[in-house]
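FORM 12-B: Structure-to-Sequence Request
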């Protein structure tokens, strides 16, 4: 009786653990996901800040240069290049 119960328990454990391998999703590397988020964030932030500076009377070129500098000062760890 105990052998039969042990065999059933082992069989159930084997069936349950084998299915887990098929349910795992292949995750993207964190680096790719991060760059997909950081690039658009950087672009939107610089565009918004440059628009604010142009509204204050700066030329578009000077405003974009200042916005880039402010972004680097505030978010220096974030990589990516503006488009």
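FORM 12-B RESPONSE
SEQUENCE OUT:
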């Amino acid at each position: 009786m105990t052998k039969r119960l042990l065999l059933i328990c082992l069989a159930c454990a084997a069936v349950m653990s084998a299915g887990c391998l098929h349910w795992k999703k292949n995750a993207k590397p964190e680096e790719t996901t991060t760059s997909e988020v950081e690039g658009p964030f950087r672009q939107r932030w610089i565009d918004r800040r440059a628009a604010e500076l142009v509204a204050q009377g700066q030329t578009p070129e000077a405003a974009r240069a200042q916005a880039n500098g402010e972004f680097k000062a505030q978010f220096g760890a974030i990589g990516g290049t503006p488009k």
